[in-house]
Every structure is written in C-alpha cells, then in structure tokens.
C-alpha cells in the first residue's frame, strides 16, 4: 500500500470528471489521494470516488483567466505540497498542456516521485515519463488511465473504467417531477462550441410536441439563456401534435458510442444519415413519453437554470432518459451517471478524445468542418456552419433512438 499520492488535474469540471478512472486506479493502492485542481474544478472533484482531499490552486499556464506569476502565489502551492508530503504525484494533462511547470514546483516542494505524459524531454523533473502517440485520438479517460498504469496503479477488479460519481445523489424529484424527461443544457464555455439559441428553443418546442417533458439546465451565469429558451419555445407558430413518423433524417455524420461489447443487438460507427441501431423490437415515436402530446407547452417544461448545485445537477441528469448538450462539462457528468447523450459537438476539439465516454452517444455536427482541430474559442468560419446546420428535427430523432436504446438494455 502506497501512502499519500497527489493527483493533479488543473482544468474545468468536465476535465476533472474524465480523470475519474485514473484517480480510482490510484486510490485502489494508496492510503490517501489528494486531488490538486484549479478553481473551476472543485465541484466535480468533490463528487469523484476515491478522492480523500481536494486542494485548489490556480495554474497560470492552464487557467483561461491566466493569473500573473507571483512569488506569493507560487509559495502558497509549495507550502501546500510540503504540508501534504506526497510520496508521489501524477500530473494529468491534455494534449496541449505541458506537465513540466508543475513538475518543477513539485520537485521544489520535495516530492520524491513524479509521473506525467510529456512530449518534451523532462530531464530530472519526471521519474515516469509516459510517452503516447498523440496523432491517435485516444479518449481522455483512457489516456489518463494509461499514465496511472505506467506509474504502477491499476483499477481494482470489477471496475470497468467508466466515469462515476459518489453516491447517493440528492433527491431532485421536487425540481423535476417524475423521471424520464429530456434534459437540454445549452450553455458552453466558448462561443465556438455553441448551438444557436434559436435552435435550442425550436428543439425544446419540437420535443414537447412529440410528447416529451423537458428540463432546461444551466449555471448561475446562464439563467438568462435558459429562461429565454424555455419561454421562447412557443414562439415558432407550430401547432401541437406528433412531429415524426419515425426514421432518421439525412445529412451529416452521426456517431453512436458507448455500446457494451457484450450487447450484440447494437453496433456503432460513422454513418451518413442512417441509423446504426440494428437491434430488434419496435419503437413508436408517436407514443406519449412522460408528457401529454398536444398539452400546454409550459406544463411540460421546467427551467432549472441557476437552481441546482453540482450534485443536484448530477441527479437531474441521472433522472433523464437522454441529455442534449454541447461539448461542455455536463456532457461528461451525464456520462458519469449513465445517461445517454445527444452531443452537439463542434470539431474545434477532436470528438475521438472529448466525446461523452462510456454511454450511448449520438454526435451531431460536421466533424470535417474547416474549424476542425483548431482549438478556437470563437468560430473562425462565418455562420458557424458546423453546428448551425444541425436541425432540431435531427435532435428529436436522436433523442428517440437513444431512449429506445436505454429502454432496450436496462
């Protein structure tokens, strides 16, 4: 049994959630796991199984706000590391991040063993330099789990390496009503990842018309956005009633991920305008699904923007039959509670690395658009076509199919 191990993941909530499998691997053979995170990752860190303590520090080379590098700021981290006295440390980073600044600080604080993925020669900063082929898009949880394995930490028997959160989660029935609703989470951290607001409102309206109950979620700073989408959904002049007679709409790449390998009824892969669900059974898209087709719109819509804590948001997502979300932290939180995801994924980051992990997922958006792999925060292409071209009809159909999959395998 190893003593105290410090694991660092200095990004936002979604990145911290993706580190969960690697953290559980460390926790399986460590007396204590101290998780070092940035200011945007604390809520997720406190939900991760295997974490003993959470330490927060803002890394100037990672945080988007880029605080100045000052002696007092750095000395505060050095004191914290010395007080923690880890026997070893794992630095978890993304492709575009260097572990070496933090490795240097860990060495100055006396950490005897440090492991990280590093493309650059680390000299004496790292004891374990794990080298990976970054030309291959490996899902982030697997990439980080690979580092843990190189450092000598393996998942315990029976742990399949999926995302997870601490249990129990709060009861949120008083917020959402009965389980089985669809969650729409429109907020993003960068404009390049956003589906247009009017598309969200249209999708909400179309989901309600098809018989769904819809819960709209968002953070405190997204309350205006969620309120506009929830209240503006009835402004499209659409009469109540069923929207589809079934079948996939054409156009654009769709990817379904997360099928278990021992579930032969389903397959996965990239297709153009076709369903890749091949399982048996029937599905009537006109049947009521937790709402009343033709009923008053507002009775089927709940706006929870700014009204949930992070654990409550996890519980809201767990109670959903599907979650519609862009490339944002709640996509990974939905995966951590086992809920299928319709991912409106802008290709500025590779979906092969960052798509929701381990659950059935439909990826919508042109993954070959000119902005592909640019890392842009603001779309460099006029009209934002990679996402603006995705219709609400395709979102509704994706929800229908994922709901069928969830019901078929549970």
Q: State the CATH architecture of the largest domain.
A: 3-Layer(aba) Sandwich
Shape call: globular
Q: State the order of secondary-structure elements, H for helix, E for strand.
A: EHHEHEHEHEEHHEHEHEEEHEHEHEHH
Tally the beta strands: 14
User: Which structural class do the helices and strands define?
Assistant: alpha/beta
Please describe the biggest sheet, giving its number of strands, its sense, and whether it closes into a barrel: 8 strands, mixed
What do the pLDDT scores average to? 84
Domain unit count: 2
Oligomer: single chain
Integer-rounded radius of gyration: 22 Å
Termini distance? 37 Å
CATH superfamily of the largest domain: Glycogen Phosphorylase B
CATH topology of the largest domain: Rossmann fold
> How large a portion of the residues is in β-strands, by DSSP E?
15-25%
> Which stretches of 5+ consecutive residues score pLDDT under 50?
236-298
Describe this structure in words.
The protein is of the alpha/beta class. The chain has two domains: 2-150, Rossmann fold, CATH 3.40.50.2000; 173-409, Glycogen Phosphorylase B (Rossmann fold, 3-Layer(aba) Sandwich). The protein has helices at residues 13-18, 20-27, 42-45, 71-84, 100-108, 140-150, 173-176, 197-209, 223-232, 310-318, 329-336, 351-354, 385-388, 392-409, and strands at 2-9, 30-37, 53-56, 88-91, 114-117, 128-130, 181-185, 214-216, 253-257, 269-272, 301-303, 320-326, 341-344, 361-364. Helix 8 (197-209) links the parallel strand 7 (181-185) and strand 8 (214-216). The protein is globular, with a radius of gyration of 22 Å.
């Amino acid at each position: 049994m190893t003593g105290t191990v410090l694991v660092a993941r200095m990004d936002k909530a979604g990145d911290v959630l993706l580190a969960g499998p690697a953290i559980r691997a460390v926790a399986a053979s460590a007396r204590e796991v101290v998780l070092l995170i940035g200011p945007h990752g604390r809520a997720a860190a406190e939900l991760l199984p295997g974490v003993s303590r959470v330490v927060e520090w803002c890394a100037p080379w990672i945080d988007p706000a880029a605080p100045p590098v000052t002696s007092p700021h750095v000395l505060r981290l050095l004191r914290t590391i010395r007080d923690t006295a880890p026997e070893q440390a794992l630095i978890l980073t993304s492709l575009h991040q260097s572990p070496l600044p933090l490795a240097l600080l860990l060495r100055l604080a006396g950490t005897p063993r440090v492991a990280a993925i590093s493309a650059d020669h680390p000299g004496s900063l790292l004891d374990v330099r794990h080298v990976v082929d970054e030309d291959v898009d490996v899902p982030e949880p697997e990439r980080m789990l690979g580092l843990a394995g190189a450092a000598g930490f393996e998942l315990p028997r029976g742990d399949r390496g999926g995302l997870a959160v601490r249990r129990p989660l709060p009861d949120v029935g008083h917020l959402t009503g009965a389980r089985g609703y669809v969650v729409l989470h429109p907020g993003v951290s960068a404009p390049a990842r956003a589906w247009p607001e009017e598309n969200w409102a249209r999708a909400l309206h179309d989901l309600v018309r098809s018989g769904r109950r819809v819960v709209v979620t968002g953070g405190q700073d997204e309350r205006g956005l969620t309120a506009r989408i929830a209240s503006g959904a009835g402004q499209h002049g659409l009469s109540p009633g069923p929207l589809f007679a079934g079948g996939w709409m054409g156009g654009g790449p769709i990817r379904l991920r997360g099928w278990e390998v021992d579930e032969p009824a389903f397959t996965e892969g990239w297709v153009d305008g076709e369903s890749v669900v091949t399982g048996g059974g029937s599905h009537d898209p006109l049947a009521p699904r937790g709402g009343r087709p033709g009923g008053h719109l507002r009775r089927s819509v709940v706006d929870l923007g700014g009204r949930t804590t992070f654990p409550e948001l996890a519980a809201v997502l767990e109670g959903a039959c599907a979650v519609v979300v862009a490339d944002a932290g709640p996509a990974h939180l939905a995966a951590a509670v086992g809920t299928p995801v319709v991912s409106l994924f802008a290709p500025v980051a590779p979906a092969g690395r960052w798509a929701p992990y381990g659950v059935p997922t439909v990826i919508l958006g042109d993954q070959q658009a000119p902005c592909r792999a640019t890392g842009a925060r603001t779309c460099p292409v006029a009209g934002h076509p990679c996402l603006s071209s995705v219709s609400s009809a395709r979102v509704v159909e994706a929800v229908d199919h994922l709901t069928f999959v969830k019901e078929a395998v549970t």
